[in-house]
Amino acid sequence: MAELGLIPVKTRILTDSDNIVDTIEAYAKDDIGPDDIVCVAESVVAITQGRMVRPEELNPCFLAKVLCRFIPQKGSLGSVYGMQCVMEAEGKWRVLYSLIIGMFAKLVGKSGVFYQMAGRQAALIDDVTGTMPPFDKHLVFGPDRPNEVAEEIKQRLGCYGATVADVNDLKRALIVGLSKGLEAKRISQILIDNPFGNASQRTPIVIIKNYRLVEQASAAN
């Protein structure tokens, strides 16, 4: 019986001069089969798309300086630069409104409302030091058109499916983009222990081996 397996794929440092689909083909093509799912770290997809900015290129507004104080410092938006980025991406009044509603929601015991309302970039922006060198001096936005990226990976590599995922060591696995026919919740469960390595490991690609075979066997039982 086929077993599910996770294979991290090591690459060189990727930059905005790279194409993520070309990179996956170059480094992982021989390891990818028709029953597998190819997963790629969202921050690396964003970097190859040039979706990053240095703090000195930003001019934080007064509202960004105020609102960042209401976000825990461990979060990217706890930085005035991170807050400025999300306001530019999603709109400053949307961010303000979402923060107010989120604060009231916390009073009644409901958390996460701010990130649900403020737009996808609120959850995806990485502050400086939040990604791998040499881009640890940049703020990195979430990737553009992640579903289309996943679909292109699937078509090019001939795999069962592909995902763009935001995973960390705090048991958080968010599927940012996925090809047609996949279930985000199931993929999140498989990636929850963070098999990626975006720092010195340089393994931003993970292959979920035998996914289709295992899911078919599970459904048959």
Features:
single chain; 221 residues; 60s Ribosomal Protein L30, Chain: A; 2 domains; two-stranded antiparallel ribbon; 7 strands; 40% helix; 15% strand
Instruction: Name the shape in a single word.
Output: globular
CATH superfamily of the largest domain: CofE-like
What class do helices, strands and sheet pairing give? alpha+beta
Our Rg estimate from Cα atoms comes to: 18 Å
**H/E series, N to C?**
EHEHEHHHHHEHEEHEH
Q: Spans with pLDDT under 50 lasting ≥5 residues?
A: none
Provide the helix percentage: 40-55%
Number-wise, the strands total 7
CATH topology of the largest domain: 60s Ribosomal Protein L30, Chain: A
Q: Number of DSSP helices? A: 10
Query: Quick one: biggest sheet?
Result: 5 strands, mixed
The domain count comes to: 2
Q: What average pLDDT do the residues reach?
A: 90
- Beta fraction: 15-25%
CATH architecture of the largest domain: 2-Layer Sandwich
In order across it, which strands form the biggest sheet?
1-7-2-5-6
State the name of the first-level CATH class of the largest domain: Alpha Beta
In angstroms, what separates the terminal alpha carbons?
Answer: 13 Å
